[in-house]
Amino acid sequence: MHARGMRRRSAALTAMATGVAGLLATPAALAATLESYAITGVQFINADCSRNEYVVTSTVTGVTDDGGGFDKIRVEVWDDGELKDFRVREVQVGTTVSLTTFLSFVGTYGGGAPGVGIVLAEADAAGENIGYLAAEDPYFPDDVDGPCSFDVERIGGPTRIETAAMLSQQKFVTADTVLVASSKAFPDALAAAPWAAQLGGPLLLSNPGGLPAAARDELQRLSPSTVHVIGGPVALSEQVLTDIRAALPAATVERVAGADRWATAAEIGERVLQDSTPEVFLASGEDFPDGLVLSALAARHQAPLLLVRAGSVPSATASALATIDFDEVYAAGGTEAISDEVLTEAAGGAPVTRWAGADRYGTAAAILAQFPSEGRVLVASGEDFPDSLSSVPVAARTGAGVALTRPDAVPAGVLSEIERLVGGWPFPLVTIVGGEVAVNPSVEDELRGVVGSTSEAARDAAARSGEQTRPTATSSNLPAD
Fold first, then answer.
1. Hey, which of 122, 143, 316, 338 would disulfide with 262, CB 3.0 to 4.6 Å?
2. For 170-209, how does the pLDDT look when each residue is reduced to its tens digit (9 = 90+)?
3. Is this structure's pTM higher than 0.85?
4. Cα-based angle 277, 358, 193 (whole degrees, multiple of 5)
């Protein structure tokens, strides 16, 4: 197969240059303006399975109001006339933003037409494709003899720092921006994880006194143009920035921090680009469990996560709430974690939804129930924060939820939600994040039992369907109409 890794186009190079002009619908007169785009694709192949992953980075100017003052675009991957995956993105009208979109599907691309087809399209208010902005067909991913699995996989190193680096290595083909947070304290990472997800980059961890080798090596592999160091000099010293600059001389290295944890979260929250349904998520800045899964939900909703005290709204948080537009407020934990009075004050009259259970796992299950079933979930320890927060950018890329487990067993409510998330999917993927001390082998066995029972019938049905619809030779992956 051909291997072209990355392809980049400017606005002057339209879909006409891709060889599929005859298949392209003409965009409406008032369509989003696609300034430039780039595609990176990898097809992982090993003895067990194969998986395609594509990262589409684009610079888009919003033109048409599809609702709430936002213009919608749709990014798709096609193979032999079959839509394999898509994402709908939003850009505020009159603004130009950079978007990172992740697409994937299990299996090799078929033999009917060469490669795959990647489409960037104008979308209507319902998110449907109404005209191509650009297309690449055929596009050939790089073939890599690398990690590919379904059912249950484990990604975990001997330390939290190495686990975060391994997670990035296996789940990020490329990243132009990377965030680095402290491995020793949770507040900065809790607020930063949704922003990392929006920027399309991983969240790596560092010791306060200097950048560890595992994080350095992963930064050099990704070679991002920008690195955001989250937190003040107590959380991550100047030596960390010095080490990053030494590892990446050409990168822009920026510290994003406020005077304290509340102000750092506020600074990050104000940088999150919200969509047409603006929301704010609130978590305790005094303890981590309730905010772990909430951080992943905030990332999915493209919303900021701010921190509050149990009995008061910190001044930095209040200032951020006065600056950020929102129509709804979501919070995690019971009244001992965040009082009703705090939520009322923070909401300023907006509706409030609180998710709370009898313990951290009950709360986690209640939040996990808000994720739709898309066949993927990441599972991390609920006893500590680093692995779950490093999971959030990965979860946001793939539409997965983040579930919390006890070290030796998955709580019943969480297990029920995991079963719902993967049920009926022929190739579900449960990713355990962390080593065997954090998440014991007994949990892995428990998850294999759930996934195996829910996916076997769906996999057999998919196989029978595939036998009935073998692709015929054709020159295009995209639909003729």
1. 316
2. 899 889 999 999 999 999 999 999 999 999 999 999 999 9
3. yes
4. 40
Structure tokens, 125: 């208010």
Identify any residues that bridge with 380 across adjacent strands, giving them in sequence order. Answer: 404, 433
Angle of helix 360-368 relative to helix 289-300, nearest 10 degrees? 10
The C-alpha atoms of residue 30 and residue 116 are separated, in whole angstroms, by: 28
- Residue 323, both tokens: 């600056």
Which pair of structure tokens corresponds to residue 438? Answer: 């954090």
**CA distances in angstroms from 170 to 36, 163, 395, listed in the order given:** 27, 11, 13
Closest alpha carbon to 49 in 172, 142, 146, 117: 146
CA distances from 172 to 165, 303, 360, 414, 473 (A): 10, 22, 29, 27, 33
Per-residue tokens: 24 = 């392209």
Return d(Cα 10, Cα 133) in angstroms, integer. Answer: 12
The residue type found at 146 is G
Domain with CATH 2.60.40.10 in the chain: 6-144
**To which CATH superfamily is domain 6-144 assigned?**
Immunoglobulins (2.60.40.10)
- Of the candidates 419, 418, 434, 371, the one whose C-alpha atom is nearest the C-alpha of residue 398 is 371
How far apart (Å, rounded) are the C-alpha atoms in residues 439 and 423? 22
The two tokens of residue 405 are 């487990």
User: Does residue 91 contact residue 61 with C-beta atoms inside 8 Å?
Assistant: yes
Contacts of 304 (CB under 8 A, 6+ apart): 191, 194, 195, 268, 269, 270, 272, 274, 280, 281, 298, 320, 324
SS3 178: strand
Query: Do residues 172 and 54 make contact, with C-beta atoms less than 8 angstroms apart?
Result: no
Q: What is the token pair recorded at 12?
A: 């002057």
* More confident position, 9 or 47: 47
Beta bridge partners of 180: 204, 229
Neighbours of 368 (CB within 10 A): 25
Q: Are strands 226-230 and 129-139 parallel, antiparallel or unpaired?
A: unpaired
CB distance 38 to 137 below 8 Å:
no
Q: Are strands 252-256 and 305-308 parallel, antiparallel or unpaired?
A: unpaired
